[in-house]
Amino acid sequence: MPRLLLSVNARRVELDDVPREASLLHVLRNDLSLNGPKYGCGLGQCGACTVHVDGVAARACVIAAHGVAGREITTLEGLGGRGRWHPVQQAFEKEQAAQCGYCLNGMVMQAAALLAREPSPSPERIRAELSGNLCRCGTHVEILRAVQTAAQAATEATGAAPA
């Protein structure tokens, strides 16, 4: 089986014997013990497995790990962590935007990608961006508020006017 070279959370990773058909999600969780991305549907439809590939939100369950060799992969763990939370993670905590937490990875990663390219999105834009991420617990209002809080904090930090 072939060797796999990845860049995950700004760290170069070399893995031996990774099957060509192995998904990025499988490699992240099983080989690298990164449990931020979750296995939800396995079809790229629920968003629980969302990671960033070169800064773009992507569904790790439907991406071949070998297909992203040489690209920068960021998981929830690489976005931020205790003592160095990403603004979106801080806002989700502040707004208590999690219940069971299963969708949390996907929501945070999708929101962070949105705010990186569109720092001050409208509530409608946020809803549209997160519409492909499923939350069964019903914390939709808190999630929307958390993304708005993160956008506002970023706007205040940069001194930019909201769009």
UniProtKB/TrEMBL annotation:
Signal peptide bounds: none
Domain 2Fe-2S ferredoxin-type: 2-79
Keyword Protein biosynthesis set for record: no
Database matches in CDD domains: fer2 (cd00207)
Gene3D superfamilies listed in its UniProt record: 3.10.20.30, [2Fe-2S]-binding domain
Pfam families hit by this protein: Fer2 (PF00111), Fer2_2 (PF01799)
Domain of life: Bacteria
Keywords from the named record: 2Fe-2S, Iron, Iron-sulfur, Metal-binding, Oxidoreductase
InterPro entries, sorted: 2Fe-2S-bd, 2Fe-2S-bd_dom_sf, 2Fe-2S_ferredoxin-like_sf, 2Fe-2S_ferredoxin-type, 2Fe2S_fd_BS, Beta-grasp_dom_sf, Diverse_Oxidoreductases
PANTHER family, per the entry: BLR6046 PROTEIN, OXIDOREDUCTASE WITH IRON-SULFUR SUBUNIT
Name assigned to this protein: (2Fe-2S)-binding protein
